[in-house]
Specification:
It contains 13 helices and 5 strands. The chain is an alpha/beta fold and about 375 residues long. It folds into 2 domains: about 100 residues, STAS domain (Transcription Regulator spoIIAA, 2-Layer Sandwich); about 240 residues, no CATH class. Strands 1-2-3-4-5 form a 5-stranded mixed β-sheet. A hairpin with a 4-residue loop joins strand 2 and strand 3. Helix 2 runs parallel beside helix 3 and helix 7 runs parallel beside helix 10. The longest helix is centred in the middle third of the chain and has 39 residues. The N and C termini lie far apart (about 75 Å).
Length: about 375
């Protein structure tokens, strides 16, 4: 090897990091372990990497996980995944450590890599979310064929928290939806003496569109935000890192139970809300239009087509999938401070509500085209 110019640091670090400026190559040498990890990191941080074109790690005689973490961060800083040259032991440990980064769990972008263009930033974020959403759907499909691996207890817990404990607020909101529709429609149809048709308006509009949508918005504000906050706290307290070290996949143990739990709970919430909304509508119809409860029920059986109920129920798991995925996705984006939890929790709710409304619009267009 030709004479090289070493980094101007102490004697220990000089024996581990050698920079040859003539060929723009950096050589990683010696033993990289936790005892001298801080020294190696400080030395690498002081390097001028602008001219480095090649990294040679083939002369490292020993490296542990702490040393590999430092090496990988240095490679990322250079914009590469691995060195140009490496020995078998280095490669084996590098590939082992890299396996823990294969899950699509988006991290906040470093400040120097954030795109300056707002539109570009939005596109990059959308691509990350689509990747996360696709990973979620693929894992759900895999779980369907492996019921023995289902975490039934955790899923049931999520159903209780997102479903059973939300019955009060969902029921009250649904009752008010039925009440408002009945009042607004009743004033108009009473002018033409078509009082009984209020049943048609309440049943179709509430069960097909309004109840699933309002329920999804409430769940987004209640459960979606809690998912973001829970995962964000787990990330700040380094529980996610501890799970990876112990061999537990955060995606399987955190994301999937929440997504599946909400997908099971949402149709039940929508069904419950449908019944309460109809009760609210019947109550107003009886008071304002003098339509008895028996007459209301008879007209409901005559005029209501079950397809409207089925459409509302079909929307429910799709809304749940969107809300849960966005909530978890935003949770993984939380950085290391409490303010970040508030920021991403707010984004989670806003994004979920927008996505649910957008999904409902897509359903309306498709069903209208199919004349359903």
């Amino acid at each position: 090897m030709r004479k090289v110019k070493t980094v101007d640091t102490n004697r220990i670090s000089q024996s581990m990091i050698v920079l040859d400026k003539e060929v723009n190559t950096i050589y990683l040498l010696g033993e990289w372990h936790i005892e001298n990890a801080d020294l190696i990191k400080n030395t690498l941080d002081d390097l001028d990497i602008s001219s480095i074109k090649k990294v040679d790690a083939s002369k490292i005689t020993y490296i542990d996980t702490a040393g590999m973490i430092i090496a990988r961060k240095f490679f990322n800083k250079l914009g590469r995944e691995k060195p140009d040259e490496e020995n078998a032991a280095f490669k084996k440990l590098r590939e082992f450590v890299s396996r823990f980064d294969t899950e699509i769990i988006p991290e906040s972008m470093p400040a120097e890599k954030k795109p300056q263009n707002i539109f570009r930033a939005w596109i990059d974020g959308f691509v990350l979310f689509v990747s996360f959403f696709g990973e979620t759907v693929l894992n759900i499909i895999k779980e369907l064929f492996k019921p023995h691996l289902w975490r039934i207890g955790e899923i049931a817990k999520q159903v209780e928290q997102t479903g059973a404990r939300a019955l009060g607020i969902v029921g009250l909101s649904a009752f008010l939806v039925g009440l408002v529709i009945a009042y607004q429609v009743g004033v108009q149809i009473e002018k033409v003496g078509a009082n009984i048709f209020i049943v048609d308006m309440i049943s179709i509009s509430s069960m097909r569109e309004l109840v699933p949508l309002i329920t999804a918005i409430i769940v987004a504000g209640r459960s979606g935000s809690s998912y973001t906050a829970q995962i964000g706290v787990m990330k700040i307290t380094e529980e996610l890192d501890a799970m990876r070290v112990l061999g537990f996949e955060p995606f399987r143990f955190i994301v999937l139970p929440r997504v599946l739990g909400l997908m099971f709970a949402m149709p039940l919430l929508v069904f419950f809300a449908d019944m309460i909304a109809m009760a609210g509508g019947a109550f107003v119809a009886n008071i304002q239009l003098s339509i008895s409860y028996n007459a209301f029920i008879e007209r409901f059986y005559e005029a209501f087509a079950m397809k409207h109920f089925y459409i509302g129920m079909v929307k429910a798991p799709f809304f749940a999938l969107i809300i849960a995925t966005i909530g978890c996705y935003r949770g993984f984006q939380v950085t290391g401070d409490s303010q970040s939890i508030g920021i991403f929790t707010t984004r989670s709710v806003v994004d979920s509500i927008f996505a649910v409304i957008f999904c409902d619009a897509i359903f309306s267009i498709i069903l209208t085209r199919l004349d359903i």
